[in-house]
Write a structure and sequence with these properties.
The chain has 202 residues and is mostly helical. It has a single domain, classed as Helix Hairpins (Orthogonal Bundle), CATH 1.10.287. The protein contains 4 helices and 2 strands. The chain has a two-stranded antiparallel sheet. It comes from Tigriopus californicus (Marine copepod). One of its GO terms (molecular function) is unfolded protein binding. It holds the Pfam family Vma22_CCDC115.
Length: 202
């Protein structure tokens, strides 16, 4: 009789344990589904905003060309293979996100000013430490001549304010493009873990 009761208790407890386990998985799936909707909405809004800024940038660029003349604002002022080298104002840094709440890791993109020394590569720092210091010649004197760091100077010294506004629109659109990339990476990671949880239920 004791063995019979023990077996009955085991049969009753097993479904309850499975129900609790299934409830935890379903709760996690619900939260992930909600996160997918939030990320999708944020991604759509960011893309729409980026498209608006890009259109505004081109419109302001057309106004600047109208006020300065077609020859003053054209691709003839842009660098080519025959002009001096130039450095980008901003660069992109890629790293893995370690602060998320999901198990799947995904990359994150960050932009920073090209003059920011905190992103200098470690191997370059080691190389610089091994080289002897220059005492008689400045480093700037050894560097090759480059174009002005500000692209607005390619179109003259006295550029209209509308050209500066156009540049700001494109810079904000660039920041939004990185935000869209980060949202897309996170969305892909959440969907991957969600699919893994759904397979574990089978």
């Amino acid at each position: 009789m004791s063995l019979f009761l023990r077996c009955c208790f085991s049969l009753v407890s097993l479904p309850r344990f499975q129900e609790k386990k299934m409830t935890a998985v379903e709760s996690q799936l619900d939260s992930m589904s909600l996160r997918v909707l939030e990320l999708t909405q944020d991604l759509v809004q960011a893309k729409v905003h980026m498209e608006t800024l890009t259109k505004e940038g081109y419109f302001l660029l057309a106004k600047a060309r109208y006020s300065m003349g077609g020859a003053a604002v054209s691709r003839l002022q842009l660098p080519n293979e025959n002009t001096l080298d130039f450095d980008a104002n901003f660069k992109v840094h890629l790293q893995e996100d370690a602060s998320n709440d999901i198990d799947v890791k995904y990359p994150l993109f960050h932009h920073y000013a090209a003059t920011d020394q905190s992103h200098t590569k470690f191997d370059e720092g080691v190389k610089n430490r091994k080289e002897p210091p220059l005492t008689t010649t400045k480093v700037d004197d050894l560097a090759p001549e480059r174009l002005n760091h500000n692209p607005l100077r390619w179109f003259g010294l006295l550029t209209p304010p509308v050209l500066k506004q156009s540049q700001q629109c494109f810079q904000k659109a660039l920041e939004l493009s990185l935000e869209c990339a980060n949202l897309q990476c996170e969305l892909t990671a959440v969907m991957t873990q969600k699919n893994q949880l759904m397979k574990s239920r089978i």
